[in-house]
């Protein structure tokens, strides 16, 4: 009896240890994926060059075969580059654009990101949180697989407990030891309590997640009155975001373009001849020429004739990005002063046929950005009032690469709520 009992306990211990290992491994991978999405995805993909180089095989390049060198580079790129010719070459190759320093990331966080990069298959390069234009749901999230694995392990655990119970009963019968008939698992109070706790935790998790997500609309992708492809305009034709979204550098709002802005080009372009197919998030292909005709209807324009702009009607574009009324956000302060790229908040807009909300725009997401983003002091009149900082810069006693938005009050409540 003791032998069978010990055997059952050993089997149960092995299953529990295996389960805990899987949970720990998956949690670390998910943590690296979320860190990559929050800090790296706006400039890097794993297998594809973006604003910065592809990160696949990064630990096999230049000085970065040692993770300590990567830690130093990520914490202070400017300081690291002063003595390293490899990163100096990268700086020139990418047009003199300096990588943002991330002093707020711990070495453990960086290692989690590097482990995630190594786990991405070479054939695909999913960017967490940045779904493709044709499938906004596509991402590296394996939550469903993890849930199925957890369920299977739970079933195996119950089966092994039943086997252990039956072995104990058989051993007792053989030795003539009287015992009570084991209860079936659906009447066993321990099993019932275990299942109740598991259900409570699962329902609590989804309840809390749902409550936290109230008011957020990440991946929101509404159907617009005209199928407007940012991939064609901002990507293929390299039209600047600021041409259509005026006031972004000087005002709080990024204006939605009027019919006049569209007609500046489309008075002479009445058909679509681009190489790329116009496919929406549902996989439906659209006729670009027909979409231009929709624009003409709103504009009251007939191709080849003089346009009477007084007949134009506003296009009822559906707004995608909305912040709560109690949040203050100024585009000019970020775009002009902070020199933040549009892709940092809006994702790879130049690769989207249909625009969707890339980031969750939560308070935590904004604060993490402020903790990691360096202040652009050089030739920036906005920061002229920071006399103490400028004096230290002149004296050479202050390294500007270590000053984040957080250090000049970027995480104080009244910055965004007043």
Put simply, the count of helices is 16
Largest sheet: 2 strands, antiparallel
Helix content percent band: 40-55%
Looking at the structure, what is the overall shape? extended
Estimated structural class = mainly alpha
What's the alpha carbon Rg, rounded to whole Å? 29 Å
The residue-averaged pLDDT reads 80
How are the strands ordered across the major sheet?
1-2
What is the element string, with H for helices and E for strands? HHHHHHHHHHEEHHHHHH
Low-confidence stretches: 1-11, 25-29, 124-141
Number of strands: 2
Question: How big a fraction of the residues is strand?
Answer: under 5%
Instruction: State the end-to-end distance.
Output: 71 Å
Give a structural overview.
Residues 27-121 form the Cytochrome c domain. By secondary structure, the protein is an all-alpha fold. Among the domains are: 32-119, Orthogonal Bundle (Cytochrome Bc1 Complex, Chain D, domain 2), CATH 1.10.760; 182-214; 230-372, no CATH class; 390-415, no CATH class. Helix content is 47%, strand content 1%. It is built from 16 helices and 2 strands. A two-stranded antiparallel sheet has the order 1-2. The longest helix is centred in the N-terminal third of the chain and has 38 residues, at 2-39. Residues 1-11, 25-29 and 124-141 have low confidence and may be disordered.
């Amino acid at each position: 009896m003791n032998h069978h009992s010990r055997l059952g306990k050993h089997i149960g211990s092995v299953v529990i240890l295996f389960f805990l290992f899987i949970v720990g491994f998956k949690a670390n991978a998910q943590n690296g994926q979320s860190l990559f999405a929050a800090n790296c995805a706006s400039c890097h993909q794993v297998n594809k060059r973006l604003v910065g180089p592809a990160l696949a095989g990064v630990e096999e390049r230049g000085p970065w075969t040692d993770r300590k060198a990567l830690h130093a580079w990520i914490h202070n790129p400017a300081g690291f580059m002063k003595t390293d010719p490899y990163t100096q070459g990268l700086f020139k190759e990418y047009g003199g654009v300096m990588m943002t320093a991330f002093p707020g990331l711990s070495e453990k966080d960086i290692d989690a990101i590097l482990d995630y990069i190594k786990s991405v298959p070479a054939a695909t390069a999913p960017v967490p949180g940045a779904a493709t234009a044709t499938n906004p749901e596509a991402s590296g999230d394996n939550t469903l697989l993890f849930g199925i694995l957890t369920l299977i392990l739970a079933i195996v655990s119950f089966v092994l407990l039943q086997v252990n119970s039956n072995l104990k009963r058989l051993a007792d019968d053989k030795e003539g030891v009287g015992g009570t008939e084991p209860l079936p698992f659906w009447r066993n109070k321990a099993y019932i309590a275990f299942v109740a706790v598991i259900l409570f935790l699962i329902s609590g998790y989804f309840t809390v997640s749902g409550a936290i997500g109230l008011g957020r609309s990440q991946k929101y992708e509404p159907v617009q009155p005209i199928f407007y492809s940012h991939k064609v305009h901002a990507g293929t034709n390299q039209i600047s975001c600021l041409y259509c979204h005026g006031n972004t550098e000087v005002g709080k709002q990024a204006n939605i373009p009027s019919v006049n802005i569209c007609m500046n080009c489309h008075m002479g372009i009445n058909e679509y001849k681009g190489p790329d197919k116009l496919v929406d998030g549902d996989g439906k292909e659209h006729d670009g020429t027909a979409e231009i005709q929709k624009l003409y209807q709103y504009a009251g324009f007939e191709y080849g004739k003089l346009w009477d702009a007084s007949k134009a009607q506003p296009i009822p574009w559906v707004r995608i990005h909305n912040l709560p009324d109690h949040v203050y956000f100024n585009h000019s302060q970020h775009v002009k002063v902070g020199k933040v790229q549009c892709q940092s908040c809006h994702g790879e807009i130049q690769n989207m046929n249909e625009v969707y909300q890339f980031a969750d725009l939560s308070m935590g997401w904004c604060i993490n950005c402020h903790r990691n983003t360096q202040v652009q002091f050089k030739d920036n009149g906005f920061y002229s009032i920071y006399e103490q900082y400028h004096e230290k810069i002149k004296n050479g006693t202050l390294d500007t690469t270590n000053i984040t938005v957080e250090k000049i009050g970027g995480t104080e409540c009244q910055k965004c709520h007043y």
